[in-house]
Each structure stands twice: as C-alpha cells, then as structure tokens.
Design brief:
Largest interface: A-B, 43 and 54 residues
Low-confidence stretches of chain A: 1-8, 218-222
Number of domains of chain A: 1
Radius of gyration of chain A: 21 Å
Structural class of chain B: mainly alpha
Mean pLDDT of chain B: 92
Order of helices and strands of chain B: HHHHHEEHHHHHHHHEHHEEHEEHHEH
CATH class of chain A: Mainly Alpha
Structural class of chain A: mainly alpha
Largest sheet of chain A: 2 strands, antiparallel
Number of helices of chain B: 19
Helix content of chain B: 55-70%
CATH architecture of chain A: Up-down Bundle
Distance between the termini of chain B: 16 Å
Order of helices and strands of chain A: HHEEHHHHH
Shape of chain B: globular
Low-confidence stretches of chain B: 1-5, 664-675
Strand content of chain B: under 5%
Number of strands of chain B: 8
Helix content of chain A: over 70%
Mean pLDDT of chain A: 89
Distance between the termini of chain A: 58 Å
Largest sheet of chain B: 2 strands, antiparallel
Number of strands of chain A: 2
CATH superfamily of chain A: Cytochrome c oxidase, subunit III, four-helix bundle
Radius of gyration of chain B: 26 Å
Number of helices of chain A: 7
Oligomer: heterodimer
Strand content of chain A: under 5%
Shape of chain A: elongated
C-alpha cells in the first residue's frame, strides 16, 4: 500500500480528504435516518401517551418500566467512550501507536458495556411485558434503540478490527491517522445520536407531574 | 510481499505482474475480457454497464406497460387477470423508476462527471463498482419475483408444505410502486401479523432496500468526486450544468433515501416480526407510511428529472452555437428545486384529510416550485433564441423534452390546487400528468443524452435517419398514448382497475391510447436497436463530432482508461469551446513525467460484498414464504457482505502507474520488462 500512498495524497479541490468528506456525507444521511426513526417514536408517543398493556392485561406506564439510573449510567459510559476516542485520534495524529491502542481498547470496552446495558434493558423490558408485538410503543422503542445499538455494535467491530490492524504495522502516517479519525467521526456521531435519543425517549417522560405526553401517571420510581 | 512491479510505469496494464493483497489473494489487475468487466473500477466501464442494464430493464418495464395497455384496449377485456394486472402495474412503475430511469441517469453520472470535471476517476473507484453490482443484484431480486410467480402459476410449488400453508399467493409485488399500508402491511392483535398480500411485497421491500443502498453509496461517491476532484481552475461556477445537476441529485438522494429506508425497515418489522408500525388493529397509523414514503417519494421525482434537465442544458447550447443563457440562474433554480422538493410531499396526500392549514401550505409550496422550473424553461428558450440551430437527433429529442415537460408541468400546477386535486386523485388524469413528466420529460432527456454522448462513449456515430424516425415515433406515440388519458381521467376513469365496463364513453380513447403505446414501444425499440448496433458496428466518428463545449469532447473517442493524458487546467466555463474558438486555452498540469499517472487496481471485493445482498434478497422473501431454514440464507448473506467489506479494506486501494502517450516516449525501466 505504501508505494502508492503518495498518489493518494494528491491534493483535493477543497483540501479535505476524500475519506473524511464521504464520512461527513454519510453522517448527514444518517441524521435523516435517525430523524425519521425518532419522529416515528415521538408521533406515536403523542398519539398513545398511555403506554401499553402487558400479557396479563394490566395497563403499564413507561415510567414504571424505565430504569433511568441504569440508562443514565450507560449514557455516561458512552459519553466517556467518546472522550477516549478523541484521545485515540489525537494519539494517532502524534504517531503514538501505543497510546492509540490503549485508548481504543478503552473505547471498545466502554462500547461493550453500553451494549451490555442495552441487552439487559431489552431483556428486562421484555420480562416486564413490553414486546415488539404487543404495542406500537414496543415497536417504536425496540426498533429505534435497537437500530442505535446496531450502530454501536458496528462501531465496536470496526474499532476491534482497527486495533488488531495496528499490530500489522501498516496503520501509520497520515493515512493511518485519517482512518482512525474517520472511525472517530462515526463514533462521536453515534454518541451524539444517543444523547438525542436519551433526551427524546427517556428524559422527557419525566417532565412535569404527568410526563410530557400527559400519560396520567406521576413519574415515580417503581 | 512486494509491489515492485507496480513501482515502474507501464504502457498497458497487461504488462503488470498480478498484485497480491495482504492475505495473498491475487487481484484481477491485468485481467481482460469478462473478468475485466466484473472487476472493473473504471468509471467509464461501470457507466456502460449501468446503461446496458438500465436499457434492458426499460424494455422489461415497457413489455409490462404494453401488457397493461393491451388489457385496457377494450372494455371488459380478459387479456390478463386482475391479480396479474396488479402485479404488472406495480412492477411497471417500480421497474421504470428504480431500474430504468435512475440507473440510466447513474450511467451518465458515471461516464460523464469525471470527464466533465477533468478527473481520472471517481473518488472511490471500488465503492463505485459496489454501487453497480448492488444495483444489479437488487434489480435481479426484485424481478426474480416474476419467476416465483410463474412457477406458482405453473403449479411447481404445489407439493410443498410451505406452499400449502400460504394464505395469499401473489409472488410478484402487487401493491403499486408506493406500496401503501395497510394493504402492504399487516392487521391483527399481538403480533399475529396477518397479511393482506403475499410475498411479492417482501420481494419489493428487500429489493427497494438493496437498490437504495446502491443509490446511497453512489451518491456519497459522486458528491465527494464533484466537490473534491475538480481540475485546477474548475471552480463550482465553471462546472458544466450536467455535473451541477448530478450534485443536486446526489444531495437529494442522500437526504431523501433514509426516509424510505426507515419506512421499509418498519414495514419489514411489521410483516416479518409482527411489529405494529402500520398495523391499524394495534393503533398503527397507515398514513404514517404515506408521509414517510412521500418524504422520499417527492424528492425522488426531482431525482429523476434533474439529471435529464442537466442533459438538456448541455445539448441545447451545443446545437444552438451559443453558451447557456443564464448559467447561474439555471444552477440556482436547480438547487432551489432540490430544496423545495423536500417541502411539497403532502401534495400527494391532499385527500387524506390533512386539515386546511397544511393543505394550504403544501398547495402554495407546490405552486412555488413551478417558478424555478419555469425559470429553467425560459433559460432554455433564451439559449436557442437567435442561435444557429443545427437539427440532429439529440437536439430534436431535447426540444421535445422542453415541450412535453411543459405539458406535464401545466397539469402539475393544476394538481397543486387542492380542491382540483381531490377530484383528480386516483384518476387517469394523474397518470397522464406524471407520464408527461417522466416520459415526455425524463425519458426524452435521457434519450437525447444517449444520442449526444454515444459518439464519445463508443467513438461511433448513431444512424441519424433512424434516430429521427425513432424520435418521431416516440414523441407521436407518447402523445397518442398519454394525451387521451387527461380526458379519460376527467371523465372519471379510475387508475389501478384492471378493466372497465362498456358504455362509460371511455372505449375510443382507451383504444387510441393503446395504439399510441405500441407506437411509443416501436420507437423505443428502433432507438435502442440503433444504439446497440452503433455500439458494435456503427460508423466511426471524430473525437468532437458536435463541436462540443465541455472537457469530455477534448478527449479521444472512446476515452482511454486514464481519461486525461495530462490533467487539464481550465480558465473558463465551456472550457473546450473557448479553447477551440475563443482566446482562453486549456492548460495542463505536469504529471510527474516519467512516473506516469496513478491507476487504481481492480478488485473482486465489491462484487463479493454485493453478492451478500443477493442472498439476503432471496432469503428474506423465502422466510416470509415459510421455507424452512431460509433465515440462514439471510445470515449467510450478511456474512458474505461482511467478508467482502473486510477483504476489501485489507487489500487496500492498490494501484499502478500508467504511462500516457504524452510521456510514453520515456524509456521503460528494465525491471518491468522482467515480468
């Protein structure tokens, strides 16, 4: 690869690397993607504020279901993973490959924790009676957060591959730093999307005495 | 592992030793023949493949259209069954839009954009090949539904248990190209997922999803190429208008396709996993599907028409001997059309009961979008006004475009008035309107582009008398076929019904329309036949037969694989025309002299990764059919996709240095000769 690297670093019209530009374009597209999913969820929350009915026929409210402490924890973890990702990108730009590996391993670890929390949450909600099939709420919640989880999982896989690739000695120089930076852009984006999902799907349910949608139930811990 | 042989510049890629990837896999670098076409990363070959597949699917969609018109020629006809009729109009619409017009536009994007901006390839050559093969496999999956349908009708599935368990057995899509929920979705409580339609809908869902991935990947690539790979001096306001319209189209695609992607995912979850997004029995709102579909679907209309507008903006100045009238305004109105295109989707839904305020707002915005379109028309008229007009087949088709597209635009403005639209909704008037826009507009524009650039693509000139004959038949037949539909629609004939009774006053014009459709079909066959013959046997022509204006005409025909022997430096709009007739010459950049120019290596990996979609595309509908273990096929497909992308990343862009004629006289280093 190195023999042709010079040719690939031909200056671009804008001075922005192709890879970085195409990642920004992908992220613009992904904004619309998540925007559509989040809109679907919010539309249905407005239409059906009451929550869902579980298998025993009990009316259930979303605030009983959420474990906001756990989700806040996993949100914090994901935020911190973005911090480590920034450190990894910075290390790569300085050519500090060992520091890059340490940080990226941290990102992977935090990403896996986040995914673990989501798996726990999904299982827990399922046992509480919220399924993809028994309500519109279940459909929108699982598909929205599940799609985000898939993005995180792809990011984790990508970083694992980058981590191992760094041992081949071929991840270096300007192109190597660029590859890591592009992965970083993706990771930060997925993180930002989660901030929005956490706000729009979780936090707003606790606004006011009846939740923002007026579900008729005080937002109390279960 | 060594790339030694790839250091030294060569005159032809077949002199190279094969390059090995990091895993020791040999890259198909020096392949010729069909392996070369399967693994090519050359934007020109990819463009030709796109064009060939698109023309094939135009014929498929055309046969479907003729079957529809044959059925409707007489009242109470039984040429096809109602069920087959539903499948025919669904596949006709889907095929023409996603497999005909979009890939033919993509063929032009691929072939022309790098040439017009003075680049040697697109920004991501392998991603470009991935877009092509993903489109090919998506198109195949969608059309394979016909094979399942015919096998079903022939009774080949009758002995299978899964077939006996099917409630609905329509194997080809039958929901219309918009697949409105709840017809395409489910009903029933608690995940019963009872369906209104058979697995044709599942073929449609996965087919469109895969085609969307192809379009998205191509659009990322083209935006990147246009923004980042312009020749020196090629500022944004010096870009040829076709390239500008490509840019606007690509931006529309990346912002509009996510809406349909999500809608398709939601519909797939409804049908396959019993979710309730559009399930009315569980509170799902079918109208949400309409919103999501048209948030994509209306920009899609401009995705279809903007490239044709770009083509016409290149053809008219060339044959009028004048520069394009009001270039900045044309570019700006193209961008405004793209922007407003996102704000008018609900005019497809006036009869759903949006309420007075949104209806008025969408009405107004829809009228507003006629303004930039009208501006373009006036600019084109201004271009030919006072020009030294030369009549050639592309010019005739481009003039036809202006006229016919205007007719479609007029009926479009009629639709923007919500009260009128609610009368016209679901009638043949709507069919007349969008065929005037899509056939009279887009198809004529694309055919004009084919005649215009064919000499550049193949170095051979299409036969002009046959071109005129085909154009005349297309324009006449098209007006005969779709003109009467205005009347039929206003006289109350509904769309999407497989027959009608005698005595409604619809008989004559339906018969006329069918004659027109066959005339249109004959015209298309003549044009495509003429072009196909030209590609292989046509008369050789010069490099610049039309006295062209933009950079691609400065190149030899057919264009060599490296495009520009020396990277051009442009000083003005219409750089080649100025170079020939004006004072500003096209300069050239020194290209590293003896080092030659860098060419990307070919690769199997885009094809391998795309093949994953083939398995996913067949696996999903087979799961819906209830065929045992079909889910493994989907998982296998995901595996192939992942494997392809992984190996793709590992093999790297590769590449070799090629000597162009400019510096080929330099001595070839001896180590190359050793291979």
């Amino acid at each position: 690869m190195s023999d042709t690297a010079a040719a690939h670093e031909a200056p671009t019209s804008t001075g922005i690397d192709h890879k970085k530009l195409i990642m920004w374009l992908f992220l613009a597209s992904d904004c619309m993607f998540f925007g559509t999913l989040i809109s679907t969820h919010l539309l249905y929350r407005k239409l059906f504020p009451a929550g869902f009915t579980d298998a025993e026929g009990h009316q259930r409210f979303i605030q009983n279901l959420f474990n906001i402490e756990l989700t806040s924890f996993s949100t914090f973890i994901l935020l911190m993973s973005s911090f480590l990702m920034a450190l990894a990108v910075s290390a790569m730009h300085k050519g500090q490959i060992k520091s890059f590996r340490r940080n990226v391993l941290g990102v992977i670890f935090f990403g896996v924790i986040f995914l673990g929390c989501q798996v726990y949450e999904f299982t827990h909600f399922y046992h509480q009676g919220l399924t993809i099939q028994n309500s519109v709420l279940g459909s929108t919640f699982y598909v929205l957060t599940g799609t985000h989880g898939t993005h995180v999982a792809i990011g984790v896989l990508w970083l694992i591959l980058l981590y191992f690739y760094s041992f081949t000695g071929k991840l270096g120089g300007h192109m190597g730093a660029l590859d890591v930076e592009v992965a970083g852009l993706y990771w930060h984006f997925v993180d930002i999307v989660w901030i929005i999902i956490f706000t729009a799907v979780y936090l707003v349910e606790y606004l006011g005495p009846n939740g923002i949608w007026g579900s008729g139930l005080p937002a109390v811990a279960k | 592992m060594s790339h030694d042989s790839h250091h030294a510049p060569v005159a032809c890629k077949t002199e190279l030793a094969p390059e090995r990837s990091d895993l020791g896999l040999i890259r198909p670098d020096r392949a010729t023949g069909w392996i070369d076409w399967l693994t090519t990363v050359d934007h020109k070959k990819i463009g030709i493949l796109y064009g060939a597949f698109a023309m094939f699917y135009f014929l498929v969609g055309g046969v479907e259209a003729l079957a529809i018109r044959t059925q409707l020629a007489r009242p109470d006809n039984d040429f096809v069954t109602a069920r087959m009729y539903n499948q025919l109009f669904t596949m006709h619409g889907t095929t023409m839009i996603f497999l005909g017009v979009m890939p033919l536009s993509a063929a032009f994007f691929n072939f022309l954009v790098p040439l017009q901006i003075g680049a040697r390839d697109v920004a991501f050559p392998r991603l470009n090949a991935f877009s092509l093969w993903t489109f090919v496999f998506g198109a195949f999956v969608l059309n394979a539904s016909w094979f399942f349908e015919f096998a079903h009708l022939a009774g080949w599935f009758n002995s299978f248990d899964w077939h006996k368990a099917l409630v609905y057995t329509d194997f080809a899509p039958a929901n219309g190209w918009f697949s409105y929920a709840p017809l395409s979705g489910t009903f029933g409580q608690n995940g019963q997922a009872l369906r209104f339609t058979g697995v044709g809908t599942d073929f449609w869902i996965i087919g469109i999803q895969v085609l969307g991935i192809a379009s998205l990947a191509a659009s990322f690539n083209f935006i990147c190429t246009i923004i980042n790979m312009r020749a020196k001096g090629m500022t944004m306001m010096r870009l040829p208008v076709f390239t500008w319209m490509t840019l606007v189209t690509a931006v529309l695609i990346i912002l509009a396709f996510p809406a349909i992607t999500v809608a398709l995912i939601e519909l797939m979850f409804d049908r396959t996993f019993g979710a309730n997004f559009f399930n009315p029995s569980a509170g799902g709102q079918p109208v949400l599907w309409q919103h999501l579909f048209w948030i994509f679907g209306h920009p899609e209309v401009y995705i279809l028409v903007l490239p044709a507008m770009g083509i016409v903006s290149e053809v008219l100045p060339t044959f009028s001997g004048k520069s394009l009238f009001g270039y900045p305004i044309i570019v700006f109105s193209g961008a405004v059309i793209g922007f407003l295109g996102f704000a008018v989707w609900s005019h497809h839904m006036f009869t759903t009961g949006l309420g007075p305020v949104p209806t008025a707002a969408f009405s107004l915005l829809t009228m507003a979008i006629a303004v930039p379109t009208g501006v373009k028309i006036f600019n084109w008229l201004g271009t030919i006004w006072g020009g030294r007009i030369r009549f050639t087949p592309p010019m005739v088709l481009a003039l036809g475009f202006i006229w016919m597209f205007m007719c479609g635009g007029f009926s479009g403005v009629m639709h923007s008035a919500a009260p009128a639209d609610s009368q016209q909704q679901d009638s043949y008037f709507v069919i007349a309107h969008f065929h005037y826009v899509l056939v009279g507009g887009v198809l004529l524009g694309l055919l004009s582009g084919l005649y215009f650039w064919f000499p550049k693509i193949f170095g051979r000139m299409p036969n002009a008398p046959l071109g005129y004959l085909g154009s005349a038949l297309v324009i006449l037949g098209f007006n005969l076929a779709f003109g009467p539909m205005h009347y039929l629609g206003l006289a109350g004939m509904p769309r999407r019904t497989h027959t009608y009774h005698a005595g409604n006053g619809w008989e004559t014009w339906n018969m006329v329309s069918t004659y027109g459709a066959y005339m249109l079909g004959l015209g298309i066959v003549i044009i495509f036949g003429n072009l196909a013959w030209t590609a292989f046997r046509g008369k050789k022509c010069s490099n610049d037969p039309w006295d062209g204006r933009t950079l691609e005409w400065s190149l030899p025909s057919p264009v060599p694989e490296y495009n520009f022997a020396q990277a051009p430096v442009v000083a003005t709009r219409d750089a080649f025309f100025e170079d020939k007739h004006g004072s500003k010459r096209i300069g050239s950049e020194p290209d590293g002299g003896e080092a030659g120019v860098h060419m990307p290596s070919q690769s199997w990996m885009p094809l391998v990764a795309s093949a994953g979609f083939l398995f996913i595309g067949f696996g999903m509908p087979m799961m819906a059919m209830g065929i045992p273990h079909a889910g493994w096929m989907v998982i296998g497909g995901l595996g192939v996709l992942f494997l392809g992308i992984w190996l793709w990343a590992l093999e790297g862009p590769g590449g070799y240095m090629l000597k162009t004629p400019v510096n080929r006289d330099a001595p070839v280093p001896t180590e190359t000769a050793a291979h």
